[in-house]
From TrEMBL:
Family to which the UniProt record says this protein belongs: Belongs to the TRAFAC class TrmE-Era-EngA-EngB-Septin-like GTPase superfamily. EngA (Der) GTPase family.
Shown residues within the full chain: 137 to 299 of 620
Gene source species: Edaphobacter aggregans
Coiled-coil parts of chain: none
GO BP of this protein: ribosome biogenesis
Gene: der
All residue ranges annotated as the EngA-type G domain in the record: 3-163
Keyword Repeat: yes
Sites where the protein binds GTP 1: 9-16, 56-60, 119-122
Protein name, as recorded: GTPase Der
Length: 163
């Protein structure tokens, strides 16, 4: 059984964009379409000659604000149960939001290897903003742009290092 990497985070932070970049597939749905309800989406990734599975936990989160918190936390719990490493994604262009803080607390309590990907850092000058997210308490904080691909190699180096 290949090791499993889980991607967690609240809606719209770029989980599916990251998943698609990592797997090179279009299996995870990206976009703002209302009412997307899908199952957890699994793919495979190869990095430096090694293989892993990866899961986008956002697939099932319906576009209904009232349901979002409980669903994020349910997905995070599944990730803690089944994954070997967890990448929490936040939107580096927004202020640190309370769902991010609650989710990070849940994940940090879980004891699994954790990485914080501060997404949407599309230009080098934006990357300093990733520092704001250090307050969440993760040891590994990596600025990335899932859309443009920057920072992805460094993230994968760190994740595969502990698999
Ligand atoms: P999810 O709900 O967490 O799966 O987020 P999506 O992957 O569906 O992305 C939500 C929105 O953020 C989409 O409009 C993406 O195009 C956009 N997005 C994702 N990654 C980036 C990025 O690195 N930079 C920018 N500027 N936008 C991004
Ligand atoms: Mg998604």
């Amino acid at each position: 059984q290949l090791p499993l990497i889980a991607i967690c985070g609240r809606p719209n932070v770029g989980k599916s964009t990251l998943f698609n970049r990592l797997t090179g597939s279009r299996r995870s749905i990206v976009g703002d379409e209302p009412g997307i309800t899908r199952d957890r989406i699994y793919g495979e990734i190869e990095w430096m000659g090694r293989d892993a599975r990866i899961v986008d936990t956002g697939g099932v989160i319906p576009d209904d604000e009232a349901l979002i918190p409980s669903e994020i936390f349910r997905q995070a719990q599944v990730a803690l149960d089944e994954a070997d490493a967890i990448v929490m994604v936040v939107d580096g262009r927004t202020e640190l939001a309370s769902p991010d803080m609650e989710l990070s607390r849940l994940l940090l309590r879980g004891g699994k290897p954790l990485f914080l990907a501060v997404n949407k850092m599309d230009t080098e000058s934006m990357q300093v903003q990733a520092e704001n997210f250090r307050r969440l308490g993760f040891r590994n904080v990596l600025p990335i742009s899932a859309e443009h691909g920057s920072g992805i190699g460094d993230l994968l180096d760190e994740v595969f290092d502990i698999l």
